[in-house]
Amino acid sequence: MNEGICPETSCRRFERWLKTNWAFTIGLILLAVALYVPTARFQFVNWDDPWYIEWNELTTSWSPANLYGILTQTVARNYAPLTIATFLVERTLWQLWPGGYHLTNVLLHAVNAILVFQLVRQLTARSWLAWTVAAIFVVHPVQVESVAWVSSRKTLLSSTFMLASLVCWLRPYRTSKDEKWGSLWLVLALLSKASAVSVPPIVIAYDVLIRRRKFAESFFQQLIPMFFCVLLILVTMQSQTTIVGGVRSHIGLSKLRLFGINLTLLWEYVGMLLWPRQLCVLYDPPIQGIAGRIALAGVGWGLVSYALWRNRNRTPLLLFAAWASILLLLPMLNLFPLTTLMNDRYLYLPCVPFFAGICGLLDAAWSRLFTSRTAEASPSSDSARPAPSVGRSRLATGGAAIAVVVVVSLLARQTAAYLPVWRDPVSLWSYARTHAPTLAVVHIQWALTLEKLGQTAEAVTALQYALDHCHPDEGDTRRIHKMLEQLHSGQTNP
After folding, report:
1. What secondary structure does DSSP assign to 424-441, as a single string?
2. What is the 3-state secondary structure (H, E, C) of 268-334?
3. Which of 32, 137, 138, 456 could bridge to 110 as Cys pair (CB 3.0-4.6 Å)?
4. Do residues 335 and 240 touch, judged by C-beta distance below 8 A?
5. Residues 6 or more apart whose Cβ sits within 8 Å of residue 80
6. Cα–Cα distance measured from residue 271 to residue 293, given in angstroms and rounded to the nearest whole number
7. Which residues, other chains included, contact 487 with Cβ-Cβ below 8 Å and sequence gap of 6+?
8. Which of 73, 65, 56, 53 is nearest to 238 (CA)?
9. Per-residue pLDDT tens over the stretch 449-471
């Protein structure tokens, strides 16, 4: 059997897939475009956007020096050459028009939704379940930060390649061609964002839990992909030589302390996914005096783990979904120092297995409910009377469809209401001041926004408020005093 890459075979396979799934695909594209096309009128925000785009000399031309710099240099303390390359292409196409960059994010989000649909459908063999998960992925408010923030391009782009890699790897009978393509997509994902290192562990979990292969065999097969992951981890660690910006109160805590805090944050994330409210660009989760919360969170996760493990043979996909969510979140749990403990964008891909697990449980419970009612209504002794199973099946399907429409509509409405917060720096930081007023960095960014608007006195007031009420750390205190000196002397802050 020839397992080389055959364009004709690939095209025919894609054509067959599109004929089967065109309605699902168009539905997801329309959802993404209808919800996020208003971002074409949004501006850049003064939260990494200047570093990645406006001040980034590497994206100003296609000179050999710039191309070499894209391949070798870090930007905003991140090594993501493929992401920076997309900004180079866009700056060539539309210079500094923010709408073009935003529309590219929307396009990537739509592509990712289609890949989510394909991946979940491939794992569950349930098209409507897969579409439901993909639709929730598109419209959930927690995705706003990733799509509406241009600097989150690295999350969107790496997710595209991660999903493509997982589509190739997570197959019950995969070929060597699948594995080669999966490895290629992984390398592209790593060059977009280092968090793609979670792909090989997810593949190992799938092989052990679903394919029932030995751990050693699967681990050995992932050695080459893991080698690339280790390389990117080393490069990323070298680029993270400074820790500035963000919320840094957790920096310096022991790994054991961070583990306890993460137990509470995982429940916060569950709450955000099930009931999204009070979303914000930055959060200030408590890290002191929370021993009781850590204990309760630990007990809760212990019970969840016990239930999943006890039912591992009956519902292996549910256990795999839980593992996948944790593994996708793992790079963002401060095993290596990050400037923020908690962010909406950290959930961009981890929400997929979470929603798949929840939807799978609800689907199973709904089907079991109608199956039991059908059995009660069709006693075996009455063999001459036609069973009402068809009617009940239609009722079950109709009820499930209505529930999906209601949930997707409610989430889309919340997203549409939250989306304008990311319109420009004024809307972003004025909103953040009301939702995270204790964070010094919020008032610093608000002061920078006011200064750019020419409102120097108001900027000074914002900085003084941060000093007096927000208990800034040493780094923020120095930054505030420097900004105050520059404002009083008439200089401009970068």
Report:
1. SHHHHHHHHHHHSTT-HH
2. HHHHHHHCCCCCCCCCCCCCCCCHHHHHHHHHHHHHHHHHHHHCCCCCHHHHHHHHHHHHHHHHHCC
3. 32
4. no
5. 154, 158, 191, 192, 193, 194
6. 15
7. 451, 456, 459, 460, 463, 493
8. 73
9. 999 999 999 999 999 999 999 88
